[in-house]
Structure formats: C-alpha cells, structure tokens
C-alpha cells in the first residue's frame, strides 16, 4: 500500500482517479491468530494498530460483525477532550489527546482533528468554584485549562443567551483550548488502513456467536465465518460487551443504554468551538460541512435499539434553545442513536478479566470517541504484557468489588446517571 | 413512544414515568455476604430482549410499575404491580400499542 501525498494526488488526478488502490485488504479468516480483537470500531482498530506497531505479538485479526465504524464510532458527536480531574482518568485521557495530536501524521491519513477548544459553561457561583477546582487539578496534571469569566465567554461566543431574562445566566466557563473535534469515519478508516499496512487482518461481516474454552482459557472463537483459533482475545465492543461476556458466564457492572445525537441543516460558520451547557446536559459543535452537531442525555432506559424516543429529543432541543436562542429556527436534518456501555461509576474498564487470555475494553458511557487512540494504545500494552499500563492501572474490572470507583460525577452506582 | 400500562391510571406515555431499572434483582439481607451485596449493587444481566424493569409513575400516581419490555425493540410485553409475576401472555392482544 502506498503513502498518500500531494504528488500521488496529482498523479491520480491526471489519470482520472482510476488507479487508487483499496485502502485495506479484505482477507479470508485464517485458522487461528495469536491475538484476536473483537470489534472493528475505533477502539478495536486502534488496539490492533498499536499492537502491530508497538508490540511483538505475532498474527493479529480484528473481527467486525458489520462494517468498520458502523457502531458507536459512526454514532457520536466527534468531541475530543481531556478535561478530567481524577487520578486514573487524567493521565489516560491526556495521553489520548497527545496521540490525537499526532494521529494524522502517524497514520498518513487525515483524521481532520481540529483543536478548536472545548468550552463548558457555568451558571452559578458553585459551578464556577467546581470549574476552578477541576481546572486547577488539570493544570497540576499538565493539562491545559483556562477559567473564563462572563465577559470573556461573551467575547468568544456573543450569541449565547446573555440577556437579563436568561433562565440560566452565564457566569463564565472553563475552556480546554487543545480539545476539539475529529472526523469520526476518517478515524476508523485511517486506523484500519494503518493496521492493515502493518499486517493486521481486518475481517468484516464476521459476528462472534460463541466461544470454545478449556480450563480458564478461550481456545477458539465461533463466528459466522467459521471457527477461529486464538491465543489472546480482546473485546472492544462497547454497547454489546455483556452480549459477549454472558456467553462466557461473566456478569458485568454494565447496562446498555441508548444515546441520541442530531445534526441540523448546514449553515454558514457559526460555532467555532465545542460548547457545552452547564445547566442541562447539552453539547454542540459545527461540522466542516456546516451542520450543527448536538446531543444531550441518554434516554434513560436499557436499550439495544440504536434509536431513541421523542421526550429526549424535546429535552435536548429545549436545552439548546436555552443556551443559544438563535437555534430556534434551525431544522434537524438527521438524528440517530448509539448503544452505550454504561458502567457503574461512569468510567471505562480497560484491563484483564477473570478469564486468563481475555482482555476487556468496555464501559465507555458517553465518552468513548475521544479516548479512541489512547484506549487502543493502553489496551495494546495490556494485551501484549498481560497487565495494564500505569495509566490504565486504575481502570480495572475489579475496582467495583474493591470499592475503588473512579466516579468523576460523584453520582454513585447508577449506570444511567453518569 | 413507549406506552406503559399503569395498573392504576391506564396506558400512559413513558415521559410520565421515571425509569428505575432492573426488577429481576432482589435486595439481599443486611447480613448477607460482601459478594452477594456486590452482585446486587453493581452487576446486571443486561439482556438483549425481554427485560424485567421498574418504572415509577412519577408524574402520575407515583406507583412503581413492573414492566416486561424488549430492549431490542422497546416493545412493552406486559405491565403490572411490583408483586405481580409478569408473563407476556397476560397481555390481551392489541391492548397496548407496540412501543418504538
């Protein structure tokens, strides 16, 4: 496979774009692999890419039941940030952000990572105090954060509701300038191409239907494309984690919930950063095509349906209008739902499992997309070495049993509340 | 919309209800083992398909309603009081519209 470059673009333009080669192979599954990653979304592909690039583990395959990036990788609001406060989160998400900053170059594929800044609005003194605390924690961990007062926010985004009648007056905000957005499909495709170039077999339309075990080991994976032997196995199937673990008799601290997202008709440049509402759960940015990309809360009931319901849509739109009154005339072009792995403390699980050769990457709640490269990087390390990297060492499955929750929201063991 | 048949108020839009969660779990005795409590507080079956769950009619009569609902389609299969044993067959044909 050849490098993408300006010269190659010119050469292919002259020949009428007839000679582009496919970006990754479509191999038949082999009899067995040393490492099998289940799930061909961003996290699974990133894991395979970093396994092949940074570790010596032998043959690697990624099994995907549908098409690449057809799950939550294609169903998010593309926000990338690392504005976390707690130990166990901060260094992990910051590593991920640093990987984002070099990802396009590393993959020779433009993932359109745009560091346009992520601004969280505050609407009370208490909320601003909380932001100051979070910002200070972030800065102590070497992560960028700026506390903005009302006037500074107003200079950046004058069309927020700064009127006297605002139900939730804006007191200020906290900004992470290095946060931003990336093009979600490009992330899946770039990682797939990168992994494929390093020899990873990416096998699509290959759904896992069962496991063969011996003792405390998985010896083979049964799929719709036949049985495949395995050395180590990694799950990166957020939303459907418990569908696989239940086949192995593992009960997980996870519920699957549906989260909706929306895009409006395209308009001229309006919102040049990511903005989140502090009085309700609402976040918005503008895509390069001009559509406003927005989302809010879960629907708050267990679901695998990949579609949501009207009350949540109404709630999200109401929050959007309360924050930016000018949105009231916008029309929604599309909306969709993704199935979230809601963990019991709002934090992901990346690590070993009770089964010897099974590794878990799950429980991403609202925020899997931003973690894509970091998740793959630490998961690859965890699989290759049989134990977590120091920056994901706290994100273990057994933290719930040990009472070592990483509860950024302070909301307790309720999967829908985070 | 998901239409939930409240035993006291009749069929109502799910926006009137607060989702409480998995109704298949039983609260252990105070002196039960740590492992039993861990299982109760943190672990879920999280099935794809029929799921037994509680919804509170928080904007209505405030009763807890037990619902059997398919998590892959949102279709409500049966509703009753918390002590009821729900069977999908209890549902009279056409009594509830399929939830979406």
Would you write up a description of this structure?
In chain A, the strands form 3 sheets. In chain A, strands 1, 2, 8, 9, 10, 11, 17 and 18 form an 8-stranded mixed sheet that branches. The relative contact order of chain A is 0.18. Helices cover 27% and strands 27% of the residues of chain A. Chain A has helices spanning 6-14, 42-54, 90-107, 125-140, 150-156, 184-197, 241-245, 310-323, 372-385, 399-402; strands at residues 32-38, 60-63, 79-80, 118-122, 146-149, 172-176, 180-181, 201-203, 208-214, 217-223, 226-235, 254-266, 274-277, 282-286, 291-302, 332-343, 349-352, 358-362. In chain A, helix 2 (42-54) runs parallel beside helix 6, helix 2 crosses helix 9 and helix 3 (90-107) packs across helix 9 (372-385). The longest helix of chain A has 18 residues, at 90-107. Chain A has 418 residues and is of the alpha/beta class. Chain A has a domain at 6-108 and 184-253 and 345-402: FAD/NAD(P)-binding domain (3-Layer(bba) Sandwich). The model of chain A has no long low-confidence stretch (mean pLDDT 96). Chain A has 10 helices and 18 strands. By secondary structure, chain B is mostly beta strands. Chain B has a single domain, classed as Folate-binding superfamily (Folate-binding fold, 2-Layer Sandwich), CATH 3.30.2270.10. In chain B, 9% of the residues lie in helices and 32% in strands. Chain B is built from 1 helix and 6 strands, in the order βββαβββ. Chain B has one helix at residues 34-42, and strands at residues 3-6, 10-13, 18-22, 50-56, 64-70, 76-80. In chain B, the strands form 2 sheets. A 4-stranded antiparallel sheet of chain B has the order 3-4-5-6, with no helix packed on it. In chain B, strands 1-2 form a two-stranded antiparallel ribbon. Chain B is globular and about 40 Å long. The model of chain B is unreliable at 92-100 (pLDDT under 50). Chain A binds chain B through residues 240, 242-243, 246, 251-256, 300-305, 307, 309-311, 344, 400-401, 413-416, and chain B through 1-2, 13-15, 19, 21-22, 38-39, 41-48, 51, 53, 55, 69, 71-74, 100.
């Amino acid at each position: 496979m050849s490098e993408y470059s300006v010269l190659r673009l010119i050469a292919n333009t002259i020949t009428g774009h007839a000679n582009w080669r496919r970006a990754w192979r479509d191999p038949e599954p082999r009899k067995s692999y040393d490492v099998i990653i289940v799930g061909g979304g961003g996290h699974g592909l990133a894991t395979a890419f970093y396994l092949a690039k940074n570790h010596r583990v032998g043959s690697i395959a990624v099994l995907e039941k549908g098409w690449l990036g057809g799950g939550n990788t294609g169903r998010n609001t593309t926000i990338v940030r690392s504005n976390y406060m707690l130990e166990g989160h901060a260094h992990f998400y910051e590593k991920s952000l640093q990987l984002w900053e070099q990802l396009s170059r590393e993959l020779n594929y433009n993932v359109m990572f745009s560091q346009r800044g992520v601004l969280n609005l505050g609407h009370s003194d208490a909320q601003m105090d909380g932001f100051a605390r979070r910002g200070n924690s972030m800065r102590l961990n070497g992560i960028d954060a700026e506390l903005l007062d009302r006037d500074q926010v107003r200079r950046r985004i004058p069309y927020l509701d700064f009127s006297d009648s605002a139900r939730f007056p804006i007191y200020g905000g906290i900004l992470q300038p290095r946060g931003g957005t990336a093009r979600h499909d490009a992330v899946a495709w770039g990682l797939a191409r990168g992994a494929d170039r390093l020899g990873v077999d990416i096998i699509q339309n290959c759904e896992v239907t069962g496991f063969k075990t011996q003792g405390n080991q998985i010896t083979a994976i049964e799929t719709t494309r036949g049985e495949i032997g395995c050395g180590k196995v990694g799950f990166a199937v957020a939303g459907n984690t418990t569908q696989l673990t239940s086949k192995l008799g593992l009960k997980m601290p996870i519920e699957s919930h549906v989260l909706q997202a929306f895009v409006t008709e395209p308009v001229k440049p309006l919102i040049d950063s990511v903005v989140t509402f502090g009085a309700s759960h609402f976040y918005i940015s503008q895509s390069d095509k001009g559509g406003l990309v927005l989302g809010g809360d879960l629907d708050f009931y267990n679901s695998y349906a990949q579609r949501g319901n009207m009350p949540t849509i109404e709630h999200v739109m109401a929050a959007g209008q309360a924050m930016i009154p000018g949105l009231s005339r916008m029309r929604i072009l599309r909306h969709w739902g993704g199935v979230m792995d809601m963990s019991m403390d709002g934090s992901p699980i990346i690590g070993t499992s009770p089964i010897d050769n099974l590794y878990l990457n799950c429980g991403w709640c609202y925020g899997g997309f931003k973690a894509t490269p970091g998740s793959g990087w630490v998961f690859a390390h965890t699989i290759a070495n049989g134990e977590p990297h120091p920056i994901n060492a706290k994100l273990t499955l057994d933290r719930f049993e040990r009472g070592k929750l990483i509860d950024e929201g302070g909301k307790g063991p309720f999967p829908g509340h985070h | 919309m998901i239409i939930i048949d409240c035993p006291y108020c009749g069929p109502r839009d799910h926006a009137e209800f607060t989702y409480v969660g998995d109704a298949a779990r039983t609260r252990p005795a105070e002196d039960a083992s740590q492992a039993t409590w861990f299982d109760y507080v943190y672990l879920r079956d999280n099935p794809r398909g029929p799921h037994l769950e509680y919804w509170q009619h928080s904007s209505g009569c405030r009763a807890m309603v037990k619902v059997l609902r398919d998590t892959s389609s949102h279709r409500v299969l049966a509703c009753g009081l918390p002590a009821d044993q729900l069977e999908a067959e209890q549902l009279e044909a056409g009594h509830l519209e399929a939830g979406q």
